[in-house]
Structure formats: structure tokens, C-alpha cells
Write a structure and sequence with these properties.
367 residues, alpha/beta, five-stranded parallel β-sheet, 12 helices
């Protein structure tokens, strides 16, 4: 086939994927509620189609003008290099980063098992990977075990897919909600330092709310008093906002009964309902928490059918954010555990049946 034929075929395929790119972009824009993992799935297919479209354009340029395509070939070689070396670099960088983050976490935060989450996960996967490779070295007399060993890479892909969707959903959601607004800002509580002072983590949540507050914004500080706290988290947050950040106290409210994120959202919603509102739309509220916690709180609010229209996050140190974000992912997976158990059970079941059939065939052939 001549170059013109290749060009036409490439152009048609590029046009198809360009249309799909627009379709997924349109579906993202038209989502009525961003508080859903569907946001991540649509974003994934949008990015894939966009990538194929851009490569189609690049390929068409190379085919159409073979004598003037130096830049195009350079970009193509660079892309192939990134795709080829990317996994290798990630394999080297990620373990090193995990060690550094864990050391910082261990030094600066409490020395708990939870703060060893990253290395525990890495060690677990390293152990499973070692077992998988060990099975691969066995003879065909263990054909059923060879087949069952494929459960590991398949479930790894499934887990990677779920994490990727959660990450994309969080990332896109965080940028879309910046355009949203509401009269009420609810700041979700966290533990107090020495039982009475706002720490860095909680302080950043308050700063994030104050930073984008308008002249009519009302801040609601939500958090009860724990058994080891001298005052309620709400009272401490209000004091911090007024005395440290200069926010007008008359535009603040406190909700001092909540102990969990669920109660933060529900009790704050009820508090807003009690206010004298001239329009029902004022019932909408924004909530502020730590950046790693925003999307899960949004999913929570959606399941509760609350009027929380979006959320924003206070900055968190990287050494804390990464393991905390993974904990958020695990919590979201756990909230849909029935669905995941069914999928995992289906995958394992298929491989068990495959292993049994493979073993019977192997024995039937006289081995």
C-alpha cells in the first residue's frame, strides 16, 4: 500500500478517536454529580482516546511528509523511550521514595503500624511476586499450579485499574470543584494538639476555607470533644480562624457533637437547615478537609444524599499524603467490598476451573 493509502487510513482512525475523545469530554462536562468514580472511568477513556488521536496526527504527518518529518520522528522516539523506560524507572524510584517517605513519617508522626503501610504493602507484593516467579520454574507436572499462578498478575491489573480510577477521579474532581461556590463552608475537624490547640494538618484546612471565603461566606467548624481533649475541635478551630487568621466571628458557627466524618457532614447539614434561609439553594455547602481526604468525603456525602456540592483540601506534607491517600483508597474499596468480592471470586473461579481442565488434559495425555 502506498503512502497515500496509509495516510487515508490513519486519518480515518484519527478522526474516529478524535470523535470519541470529544464524546468522553462531553460526558465528563455533563455529569450532574461529580461525586462518583464514574468520573475517573470517563477521564481514563478520554485520556486514552486523546493519546491515540495525538499519535494518529503525528503518524499522519510522518507518512504524508517523509522528507520533512524530523521533529515528528524525534517526538515518536521520545514517546517510545518514555513508554519503554517508564516502568523501569518507576520500579527503581518507587521503592526508594517509599523508604524516604516512611523514614520521614516515622520520625515526624506517631510510630504506629499504620505509618508503616507503604513498606508493608511493598513487601507483601514482593513476597507474592517471588512466589509467582518460583512457580514459573516448576516442571509441567505442576500444570494446575502454573495456571493458578496467573491469578496474581490478573488481580494485580484489577487492583491497578481500581487505584487508577480512584486517583483520576480524585484529581479531576479536585480541579472541577474549584469553580463551585456556596454560602456555607464546613471545615471538618481533626485531632487537637495537647487537647486544645489546632495543629498543622487542621490549620491548613481552616486556611484553605478562609483563603477562598467571600464577604457573605459563613464558616461552620465541625468537630466534637474527644475523651483526651480539653475543648471541642469546633471551638478550637473557631478560635484559630478568628484570632490567627482574622476571620469575623459573627460569620462563624460551631457544630460540637460530631465524632466521625459521617457525623461532621450530617450534623453540619442539619445545622444549616436550622438557619433562616431566603432561598433553598443556600442549603448547598462546600466542605474543607485535608487534600487526600476530599474525594472520599465527597463520595460519602453523595451516598448520604447531602447537599455538599464539593470539597477542597488543605495542603498536606508529601510524606503523610501518599500513605494517607492509599488508606483512603482502601477505605473506598472496602465501602464497595461486595462488588469487589464478586469480581475477585469470579476471576479466581475462572482460573480454578481452567486449572482443573488443564490438569485433566495433562493426565489424559499420559503424563
Amino acid at each position: 500500500m502506498d503512502d497515500f493509502g496509509l495516510f487515508i487510513i490513519g486519518l480515518i482512525l484519527t478522526a474516529i478517536f478524535a470523535g470519541l475523545t470529544f464524546l468522553f469530554w462531553w460526558k465528563i462536562r455533563k455529569l450532574k454529580d461529580l461525586r462518583t468514580l464514574r468520573l475517573g472511568r470517563l477521564s481514563f477513556f478520554y485520556l486514552i482516546c486523546l493519546w491515540i488521536t495525538l499519535n494518529g496526527i503525528l503518524g499522519s504527518v510522518i507518512v504524508w511528509s517523509p522528507h520533512h518529518n524530523g521533529i515528528g520522528l524525534l517526538l515518536l522516539v521520545g514517546e517510545i523511550t518514555v513508554l519503554g523506560l517508564g516502568p523501569v524507572l518507576i520500579g527503581l524510584i518507587v521503592p526508594i521514595a517509599i523508604v524516604i517517605l516512611t523514614i520521614k513519617m516515622w520520625r515526624r508522626e506517631s510510630k504506629s503500624v499504620g505509618n508503616l503501610l507503604l513498606p508493608i504493602i511493598v513487601l507483601f507484593f514482593a513476597l507474592i511476586d517471588w512466589l509467582y516467579l518460583s512457580v514459573g520454574r516448576l516442571s509441567l507436572d505442576w500444570v494446575w499450579l502454573h495456571v493458578l499462578s496467573y491469578v496474581f498478575p490478573v488481580l494485580s491489573i484489577y487492583l491497578a485499574w481500581q487505584f487508577g480510577i480512584f486517583f483520576l477521579s480524585s484529581w479531576v474532581y479536585g480541579r472541577r470543584v474549584r469553580k463551585l461556590s456556596a454560602v456555607y463552608f464546613v471545615v471538618l475537624g481533626s485531632g487537637l494538639v495537647a487537647g486544645e490547640r489546632v495543629g498543622v494538618l487542621l490549620g491548613n484546612r481552616i486556611r484553605a476555607a478562609v483563603r477562598v471565603a467571600k464577604e457573605d461566606t459563613i464558616l461552620i467548624f465541625s468537630g466534637g470533644q474527644g475523651p483526651d481533649e480539653k475543648i471541642s475541635e469546633a471551638a478550637a478551630m473557631q478560635k484559630f480562624a478568628v484570632e490567627e487568621l482574622g476571620f469575623p466571628i459573627e460569620r462563624t458557627l460551631t457544630e460540637e457533637k460530631s465524632r466521625t466524618t459521617y457525623e461532621n457532614l450530617v450534623f453540619s447539614d442539619k445545622l444549616i437547615d436550622k438557619q433562616d434561609l431566603t432561598e433553598p439553594s443556600n442549603h448547598k455547602f462546600m466542605f474543607f478537609t485535608s487534600d487526600y481526604h476530599v474525594f472520599r468525603a465527597a463520595l460519602f456525602a453523595a451516598r448520604l444524599k447531602l447537599t455538599a456540592q464539593g470539597g477542597r483540601g488543605g495542603k498536606t506534607a508529601m510524606y503523610y499524603r501518599v500513605p494517607a491517600f492509599i488508606r483512603e483508597f482502601i477505605a473506598v474499596m472496602n465501602s464497595e467490598r461486595k462488588k469487589h468480592i464478586i469480581w475477585v471470586g469470579l476471576i479466581v473461579g475462572i482460573f480454578i476451573i481452567w486449572a482443573i481442565v488443564a490438569e485433566l488434559i495433562y493426565l489424559k495425555n499420559g503424563h
